[in-house]
Amino acid sequence: MAGASPLVQLFAALLAVAATATTTAALTDDVLALVVFKTGVADPLGRLAAWTEDDDRPCSWPGVGCDARTGRVTSLSLSAASLSSRLPRALLRLDALLSLSLPGNNLSGPVLPNLLAALPRLRSLDLSSNRLAAPIPAELFAQCRSIRTLSLAHNELSGYIPPAVASCSSLVFLNLSSNRLAGPIPDGLWSLPSLRSLDLSGNELSGSVPGGFPRSSSLRAVDLSRNLLAGEIPAEVGEAALLKSLDFGHNLFTGGLPESLRGLSGLRFLGVGGNALAGELPAWIGDMWALERLDLSGNRFSGVIPDSIAKCKNLVEADLGWNALTGELPWWVFGLALQRVSVAGNKLYGLVKVPVNAAPALRVLDLSSNTFSGGIPPQITTFAGLQYLNLSSNSFSGQLPSGIGGMRLLEVVDVSANHLNGSVPPEIGGAVALRVLRMGRNSLTGHIPSQIGNCSSLVAFDLSHNNITGSIPVTIGNLASLQVVDLSKNKLNGTLPMELSNLPSLHIFDVSHNFLSGDVPDSRFFDNIPETFLSDNSGLCSSRKNNSCNSVMPKPIVLNPNSSSNPLSQATPTAPSNMHHKKIILSVSTLIAIAGGATIIMGVIIISVLNRRARAATSRSAPDTAISDDYLSQSLENDTSSGKLVMFGKGSPEFSADGHALLNKDCELGRGGFGAVYKTMLRDGESVAIKKLTVSSLVKSKDDFERQVKLLSKARHHNVVTLRGFYWTSSLQLLIYDYLPGGNLHKHLHECTEENLLSWMERFDIIIGVARGLKYLHQRGVIHYNLKSTNVLLDGNGEPRLGDYGLANLLPMLDRYVLSSKIQSALGYMAPEFACKTVKITEKCDVYGFGVLLLEVLMGRRPVEYLEDDVVVLCDLVRSALEEGRLEDCMDPRLCGEFPMEEALPIIKLGLVCTSQVPSNRPDMVEVVNILELVRNPQDCPEIELV
Ligand SMILES: *[C@@H]1O[C@H](CO)[C@@H](O)[C@H](O)[C@H]1NC(C)=O
Ligand SMILES: *[C@@H]1O[C@H](CO)[C@@H](O)[C@H](O)[C@H]1NC(C)=O
Ligand SMILES: *[C@@H]1O[C@H](CO)[C@@H](O)[C@H](O)[C@H]1NC(C)=O
Ligand SMILES: *[C@@H]1O[C@H](CO)[C@@H](O)[C@H](O)[C@H]1NC(C)=O
Ligand SMILES: *[C@@H]1O[C@H](CO)[C@@H](O)[C@H](O)[C@H]1NC(C)=O
């Protein structure tokens, strides 16, 4: 009140001590109370500017209303006026007020305890949407006979709701929503004879809802949603027969829907979503025939959806999502006046049948996360008002109907994670309102239609995990609103259109795992695009990283700054005179070459390693033992931008004669969950296999990576492929292995011709060899994680060697999700515990994989075979054959019966024991090897009996 006049200050003082005012003074009191009110609040918008103490009547002041007869102030109404202060005490002097309404201001402090007592005629009080705090004073309701409408909603009130509120017998409307009120709902509220509307939503109320809804209740609307209320919904709530709206949503209610609800023939909204209600949906829901909105979502309701809901002819919104409902989609979804329907996240199945002549008013249809199958009914595209269509995570097959192009209001289409095939229909360009189009994780083929460029509102576009070919259409550059684009895991080729640099809002653009090449567009977004969005393509390069496609020249980095020779001169390859030079110069250059111009082969990675002297130094140092890498580490770590090559043990870390190792598609040996493998040659003519990790984004820090790789490199066993070295940069990691000419076991088993068919003895040898290799790895504490026939390589003598072991250890954590997605190609070999969070993954997962592999070798069949309408799981097949005594029938027919059954039988049984569901029931590899050796030399122990 800094600027207030002395007169006002005097009156303020008088008010504060509650000086008795005479009736004649009452009028002037009103003026002065309002002036004091004005002086006490900050009024940034000047809404009170016209209030001046010079007027003797305040009745024409903005927001002020008077009784025409007495001239007393009866209403004060200032909403959203940005008034800031504590709730002014001056209000207490306006004792003729009938209505006080100050919502949407910035009033703080507690509610005045004597507010209702001081304003005995007040019928309506609205202080909602302010910043009132502290508990509601219990005294507030000591004298509240005349109050009818009371809203303190949307403040910061805390504490319990004073039980005395139930004594305000005239209350019609009580709104305490969106505060921080806790504790129970006071008893007696339901008995207030005039109460029509109660809103306690959005607090922290707890306990159960008191019962006692009288038949005489006037209640029309009750909103208890978003609290912490528990227990059952009161059984007799339906006694309040005039109810039109009942919201119990988002609490902790249990039990079922009380049957008394069926009597609510005037109920228009029933909300119980987000609780823990269970049981079947009662058929009597249809008795609430006036329902317009029904929310049962997010509970545990089960059973089929009752057809009787169709009796609710006015139903506009029905949300039954995220329960455990079963059965088929009810016909009425397309039959009533429904505008919004969700049955997402249930267990519904079968075809989605749209009745002929259905012309529903649907705007939102969400059938996602069920197991609906069959085609997407083309009639859906005739629903002219449809704005949101979510069919994701079902088993829909066939094509996206082309009629979708005629849907002018359609904004969101999500059909991801189904079995759709065919291509993206070019008609999609007609869906001009489309903001979100998700078609990822299907089996789509064909090209991205250029017409997509007509969907000018598109914000999110996802076609990931399909088999889409061709190039990215230039027209995508027209879609100025695009923010999220995911085209990863397809077969797109060609270059990225430069027009993409026009997209101002882009923040995700994932094209990883395609066959794209060329320069990345120039724009702020693309200059800073994370590597993961571009990884695993034929060759994408960005000028920011100084490896623009136009300058593909290996530039060696000289890593020893003390070198006497010119550090920038590229050492000429294999100049023998350099071999005996005293100074050590090491140069490594790497380059990811991308096909920008015609001169460069697409998809080439060139590694140029020119470190003859390092080799010379190594050969002079202690024999055999490690490792030039200590030296290499030291000298390389000074230069963070360079790559680091480390070779273990003896051997030359130099690639083929021209100083380059070409890792291109022509010398690709195969691909797995962790990357592609290429064959290349060391300078001395020895072949090596180089694995290029595609999990670079997931790989641990350089130090962890090195530690793990060094651990793996120590594995030396004639049944294990030797890891010879590695190459590291933050974006490219290579592992260098011995190259094995014999190919992998999978090829020998499933893709071979008559001549090189594996004999019984060879198969037995392979099984023992694999078992020994695994035993060795386990003894060194290495879990393979990825055992399968493609990872068993055969050397020149037909001896098996395990490859790809322990790579999961290179990832930051043994995350099951990552593991199973990286190793999903090993379907059928994966131990069941991968799917079970509570079971620890141990080396017994390898034993499981070994058991499957063993059966695969003997039966010559894949671990899982997909037949036309059947899936054959090998170990189940063998297990039942054993039980039925017809094992011989399922041995590989190509063996033509040439095997001793007395040897085969125990081995098969061993395989079955190894594939036990429970890890602890599986033997360990030491036992497995012992058993196999005994089967081979039975004289050592005559009684082998596996049961
Ligand atoms: C609300 O009042 C507080 C002081 O009580 C002040 O700091 C704040 O800026 C005001 N907020 C608005 C939106 O006027
Ligand atoms: C209660 O008040 C809040 C905030 O002003 C408002 O949003 C809500 O609609 C009110 N409740 C009822 C039932 O009118
Ligand atoms: C479709 O529904 C799924 C849940 O079933 C949800 O995760 C996804 O976000 C929805 N898609 C869109 C575009 O809203
Ligand atoms: C892509 O095609 C290949 C072979 O044609 C098939 O094995 C693979 O499952 C397909 N991928 C998808 C996501 O449909
Ligand atoms: C993309 O691949 C197709 C065949 O797979 C080929 O015809 C076409 O020329 C390729 N396009 C580019 C730009 O490489």
TrEMBL record:
Top EC group: transferase
EC annotation from Swiss-Prot or TrEMBL: 2.7.11.1
CDD domains associated with the record: STKc_IRAK (cd14066)
GO molecular function, one term: protein serine/threonine kinase activity
Coiled-coil features, chain-numbered ranges: none
Binding site for ATP: K692
Record's bilayer topology term: Single-pass type I membrane protein
All copies of domain Protein kinase, residue ranges: 663-935
InterPro entries the UniProt entry points to: Leu-rich_rpt, Leu-rich_rpt_typical-subtyp, LRR_N_plant-typ, Prot_kinase_dom, Protein_kinase_ATP_BS, Ser-Thr/Tyr_kinase_cat_dom
Keywords in alphabetical order: ATP-binding, Cell membrane, Glycoprotein, Kinase, Leucine-rich repeat, Membrane, Nucleotide-binding, Receptor, Repeat, Serine/threonine-protein kinase, Signal, Transferase, Transmembrane, Transmembrane helix
Localisation: Cell membrane
Main location group: membrane
Keyword Transmembrane: yes
Protein name as catalogued: non-specific serine/threonine protein kinase
Phylogenetic placement of the source organism: Eukaryota, Viridiplantae, Streptophyta, Embryophyta, Tracheophyta
